[in-house]
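ESCALATION

Customer reports they have been waiting on this structure for their group meeting. Please prioritize. Original submission:
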Amino acid sequence: MPKNLMWSTERFSGCHRHEVFGGANRQHSIEDGLVIFLLPEMHNMSNQGIHFNKQFKEYAQKIAQKTWMEYYKKTEEDFIKRYGKNFL
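Update from on-call: job pushed to the front of the queue and completed.
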């Protein structure tokens, strides 16, 4: 694993997969490729993890939305139709 890597779009041994948009949007997140791979400590094994750190979660959601809109050539309105909320 690269030094100091806390998250990646590639899977490394020991990393946990995290769907950036969970709950009702978990399947959309998987279908659209909006998943990241995190070290266990950055996922759910410490207070710094994305499940417990609101700033980290919101940061990941913003990047994911921007990436989705660029990759699929969609607008904020399109994102809201698919995910129900604008995270930017």
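Sent to customer with the following note: The two ends are 30 Å apart (CA to CA).
Escalation resolved.
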